[in-house]
Structure formats: C-alpha cells, structure tokens
Amino acid sequence: METELTIDSIAAGGDGVGRAEGMVAFVPRTAPGDVVRARLQSAGRFARGVLDAVVSPSPVRVAPPCPHYERDRCGGCQLQHLALEAQHEAKRRIIEDSLSRIARREVAVPPVVASPREWRYRRKLTLAMRRRGSAWIAGLREFDDPDAVFALQDCPITDERVVAAWRAIIDAAELLPRDARELRGAVRLLDDASVAFTLEGGERWPTAERFFDAVPAIAALWWQPAGATRRRLMLDRRSDAAPGASFVQVNPQVGALLADAVVAAAQSHAPRTVVDAYAGAGDVALRLAEAGARVVAIELDAEASAYSASRLPAGSRAVAARVEDALPEALPAELVIVNPPRAGLDAQVTATLEAALQGAGPAPRALLYVSCNPATLARDLARMPSWAVRRVQPFDMFPQTAHVETLVELVPASPPPEPSA
Ligand SMILES: C[S@@+](CC[C@H](N)C(=O)[O-])C[C@H]1O[C@@H](n2cnc3c(N)ncnc32)[C@H](O)[C@@H]1O
C-alpha cells in the first residue's frame, strides 16, 4: 500500500520511523522531519516501507557525498543523508530508547563524543569478492538485497591507503584461488605504507606467493580456506609480531578516545585486581597492569591473546579462552571490564556477573561495559538488576552508519533489588 507519512525518528539499524494506517512504519533512507511517500508492507502492528519520494525534505537532510550510497544502494552506510549533528542525536536517542524499552533503565544519555574525522576514518575494510567472467569484483552488498554485490570504486569513510590496497588486490586478482567463485577479503592498515590482507574462501591457492609479490602494499597475508576452522599465516614481511588478522577498532582516533575513557573510569575505582574480558590484543589490560593492577585478560582469539601475553608484566596474565568458561575462575576482582562483539554477553556471563554481587566472596566495585550494539547492551543490563548504571557515554566510532559505541559504568545497586516473585 502506498501512503504519505512523516518520519519522527531513527530506529536502531538506521531506518526512519513514522506512523501510518495505525502501524509503526520503518522506512530506510529517510530523515526525522521528512514527509515521504512510501510503499508499506504490513506485518501486524509494524510495516516495512520502500521510499518512493521525499514530498517535503527535513531540514537535517543532506545530499549523500558517496555516489554508491544512492546509485548502488550501498548497505555499508545508513545515515549519509543526515547532517552529522542529526546522526549524533539519532544515535544518542537509540541508546536512550534501548535502555528504557529493553533494560527498563531511565538514563539521560549525554551527547555522543564526536569522531575527529567524519570521512576516511576506517582503517579496515571487508569486501565480498565475486568472479564476473574471467575478472573479479570486490564490493559491498545492497541494503535491500543482501545477495547483490556491486563493484566498489571508492569508499569515502575508508582511509585512502586501504582503498588503494584494494585496487591493487583487484588488479592482481588473476592470482586468487582459481577454485572459488566467491571470496571475502579484509584489508587492514598496519602503518603508513602497509596493510594486512585476510582472504577467506577457496580450497587450493598455489599462486598465493605470486599474489603476495604482486601487491607490495600487503605486508602480512592470511588465508582461511573454505571449511577450515583456523586462520593460517601464509606470508609476512614484518619483524613485529602484532596480530594482523585479529580484532581492531576500525576508527583509530575514536578507539584511542574510548580506551582513554575506559582507563580513566577504571582508575577512578583504584582497583588492585582487574578482569579484562574480551581483551583483544590487550592494550587496555597493559595500561592498567603498567599502572600497578594485577590483570587477567581473557580473549578467545589465539593470536591476539598470545600478543597480549607477550606484553603483560609479571603478576598479570592472558587467558586464551571463552569468557563464558574463564570468567568464574578469574573472579574475584575489584573491577571487571567487558567489551564483547555485537552479539553481546552470553547468558552465562551475565549470570556470573550478577552472582558476583550475591555471593559470599568480595564483590567487584565496578563493571565497565563497552558495547557496539545498544540492543544487546540493553538486553544484558536487563539480566543484571543488581548492577546500577552510574554513567553512560556514547562514542561516534562509525560516522555515516547507524552503529554506535557505548561505555557504561555500573556499580553495585544499593540496596540490592527485591527478588522478583
Ligand atoms: C569488540 S572486540 C574488543 C577487543 C578489545 N577489548 C579492544 O578494545 O580492542 C571483542 C573481542 O572479543 C573476542 N571474543 C569474541 N567472543 C569471545 C568469547 N566468547 N570469549 C572471549 N573472547 C571473545 C574477539 O576475538 C574480539 O577480540
């Protein structure tokens, strides 16, 4: 059904939200304040909409600078059509709404910490690769058809050196595994001149060495063959052992601001013992250990955990394991940090953190939760009623997209809540 509606807000995921025909309608690529004509497909009280026309544009609507955004319906960004201040406000409200609706916590969320760079901030870009005849294309998926991949010419939120490395990779594509029609690749900036490239897919790659030689910007090449469980380091021109294929914050400037905020919040509790769960390569763990705390850094990725272990001073340790399994043994600690992937905390982890305030042993003084997904953050806080929110600080780690990073400082609720009947 085609209808006219006014967009009121932005939902998690980036769709504009309005009301029409008694339904809450979600329409991608719309801005709060837009009056639009959209085709709605109803699903009970909700509807998905396809934007047909902007009847009257919102004052916060801007022309998206990236040609792929409209022409190719690129699914990489969701908010390029919003002025940056409106993106910030949308993200702040997404967090506030998630905390209120899902976690039942009424918290006044402050403005997001802005990214020093609005464009060219990404130091890592993962693309789908498809064979087209004898050539390869590398690109992103369309937002309304995730099976469709278009050939990326440029990505203006990504560092130019990463984009240049991708062009060189496509130029050398005849040296990719011949037995694959689809691959996935991730280019990650290591320093001014070099990148790490991780390729997923293919079963045989006899030309890997020739490919490595053909793209001098690649300093480290990793390959995860189809169906293989482990990454295999193929070739490395570096002497440094820093993991090239493990997790890295995509926006280094905001990553540094966030790490400073986590360390400052941790130190405000003067902890002598810390558990850093989902620790990655251990940068925060190392800073707290160097400041005198005894830190247990738990991380599943073997390379990242080994790197963490190689840097932590005596008295601190890295545990290469799932947080679900290792957290009970790592406690008690005076401070716990959790920084999980988008899926949030496993129910076993929230149960352990909740029980840490109920048990006979010494309880942590604070819990710092770093989240890249407000919905799973709110779900996890709902599972931990004994922890009270003291402070929330969002960071605009991913300008032009609907993603947002949030630091939440929690302290034991006092008095403890009544057990529910
Ligand atoms: C969002 S990253 C945070 C990394 C690090 N704290 C940082 O700021 O750079 C999440 C990390 O959790 C790790 N991870 C994912 N699932 C895990 C699990 N179940 N147990 C332990 N680590 C896990 C990933 O390998 C990744 O390094």
Automatic annotation (TrEMBL):
Per the record, the domain of life is Bacteria
User: Is the keyword Signal assigned to this protein?
Assistant: no
Q: Which residues form the TRAM domain?
A: 1-51
Which keywords describe this protein according to UniProt? Methyltransferase, S-adenosyl-L-methionine, Transferase
What positions does the entry give for S-adenosyl-L-methionine binding?
249, 278, 299, 339
Query: Do the record's keywords include Methyltransferase?
Result: yes
Give the similarity note.
Answer: Belongs to the class I-like SAM-binding methyltransferase superfamily. RNA M5U methyltransferase family.
Name recorded for this polypeptide: tRNA (Uracil-5-)-methyltransferase
